[in-house]
Amino acid sequence: MITNIFRQNLPGPAKIIDGSKIASLIIEEYKYKIKKFIQTSGTRPGLAIIQIGNRQDSNIYIRKKMTASKKIGIDAFLFKYDRNVTKNKVLDKIIELNNDSRINGIITQLPLDSSSKFDYSDLTNKVLPDKDIDCLSCFNFEKISNHQFKNTFIPCAANACLKILESINFQIDDKRVVILGSSKLVGLPLKHMIDFKNGKTFLCNETTKNLKSLCQTADILIVAIGRSHLVDEGYIKSGAVVIDVGINYDETNGKITGDVHFEQALKKASYLTPVPGGVGPVTVAMLMVNTYLAAKIHYEKILQT
Description:
Blueprint: E1 15-16, H1 19-41, E2 46-52, H2 56-72, E3 75-81, H3 87-98, E4 105-108, H4 120-124, H5 138-145, H6 156-167, E5 176-180, H7 187-196, E6 200-204, H8 211-215, E7 220-223, E8 241-244, E9 248-250, E10 255-257, H9 262-265, E11 271-272, H10 279-304
Parallel strand pairs: 1-11, 2-3, 2-4, 5-6, 5-7, 7-8, 8-11
Antiparallel strand pairs: 9-10
Helix pairs in contact: 1-10, 2-10, 6-7, 6-10
């Protein structure tokens, strides 16, 4: 277990996991690795972020990614378009970035804020697999689905959940894991990764029959449903580890809330991630790791030619 990753406990049995502290440890570790890589290769890892629209929550997350990139030694470039941009214009940019040797990783900030409402997969499937560090292309996601994790990018938010469990030394093997939310960003890849580690996974969503009863059976409850405070203490088994991946932005007051009712979860959980400051910072750190790995793969291919 990594020490000093907990916040001062509030009333209740739960230990509050400080994701910012875990992220800082990851950033410091890879800051050194990236420095060595730059010295060896003569190049800096490059990250391209594509943003459509001007959602305030997206602006916040992108600032965090840009800040982390600068701190760790990655060159980050933001390509921002207004809501009326055509899909073809963004696709042309992705093709350009695919061919840009300075760029090792390409991500599209989700959700899209586009007036034309095109599907984000139209964009992510255009990214070269070696630059698809969010693992959202069909090619890379199929590798995850087939448990081909070697030389494969692990989706950042899903990997952040595993890193948090690793940080508290919580063994997944033979544990009952309920994942509430089945998106390609979190739920689906997380199920495949936990299955690979011999956890007993149950993937569900809001329409799942007897949802509350199912969640009550979880040793580990991971919530990524996108509904503010959906999960209260009635969903949580006493002593469960609760990881809240949800990020909900309230435009009326500018506050960010999770999918778990934090104060109620404190009464039941053994470990609990807060929002903000839990999974989010670790997700950003894992994005930095994936960008570094993409740069390393690119450099190794150059050496082989």
